[in-house]
Design brief:
Length: 251
């Protein structure tokens, strides 16, 4: 992939991030809708990040232009200097196409780490809710807690085959859409209505489709959770491609 190195470096400096030349060292499907790609690179030895943060990848689109898409760092192995990224393969966007076809030896640039939604260490309980696009970040944050049992995760997936195997976070609960759109808020809002919010100063982290995130936030506010204890983060918007900087696009 050919990019303008000067533009990439200028962007990284503007947002206070680093540029990483990453090589794919392994790739495998976790579920029919999610693929894990493991990246290596000498520069990763200097990576400093907080669970929940992401990298902005420069991806070549079908017309040859470079678009940027953001994916959470699912895990980091400092000894092996590798990171894993779990990518949802929904739709036919440039990010989904690239991760679906990634093979060992492929190279890509990553800019980061980025992201302000990270674990609040002072919270007495943690609630993570969203669709499968939020699962990598939610798991990374929950697993970083001194006591992962303080975390409850409510994640919508299409069906049981989309549940990622081998997860050891005890508070992970899936809700199945059974063909309904991930942009339909009803299932997650209903599930949140049944969640025990716990005692003390907890924190809720919400991510996924823009309008679903808004509906979940409204639901928790209606239950009396203070707005300052809610961290909403739209990852995508139904019917509108993400903008070139990786954030949900606007009409």
């Amino acid at each position: 992939m050919v990019t303008n190195a000067g533009d990439t470096r200028a962007l990284a400096e503007r947002i206070g991030a680093e540029v990483f030349d990453l090589e794919v060292v392994a790739a495998a499907s976790l579920t029919p809708s999610m693929r894990r790609v493991v990246f290596g690179g000498d520069a990763l030895a200097a990576l400093r990040y907080e669970p929940g943060q992401d990298l902005m990848f420069g991806i070549t689109d079908l017309d040859g232009s470079i678009v940027r898409r953001r994916y959470t760092i699912r895990s980091f192995d400092p000894a092996a200097t590798t990171i894993a990224v779990d990518a949802v393969l929904h739709g036919d966007g440039p990010g989904a196409r690239w991760f679906a076809g990634a093979q060992a030896g492929d190279h890509i640039e990553g800019i980061g780490p980025r992201g302000k939604v990270t674990v609040d260490g002072d919270a007495t309980w943690h609630l993570f809710a969203g669709d499968e696009s939020f699962l990598p970040a939610a798991l990374a944050m929950a697993e970083s807690l001194p006591d992962p049992a303080r975390a409850t995760l409510v994640i919508s997936v299409d069906s049981a085959v989309d549940e990622v195997p081998g997860i050891e976070v005890p508070g992970l609960h899936y809700v199945h859409r059974d063909g309904a759109s991930a942009a339909d808020a009803e299932l997650l809002v209903d599930a949140l209505a049944r969640v025990d919010l716990g005692d003390g100063e907890g924190r809720a982290y919400l991510a996924g489709e823009l309008r679903v995130v808004s509906a979940m936030r409204a639901s928790l506010l209606g239950r009396g959770l203070d707005a300052a204890r809610i961290a909403p983060k739209p990852y995508w918007r139904a019917g509108v491609a993400n903008a070139n900087h990786g954030e949900p696009g606007r009409d």
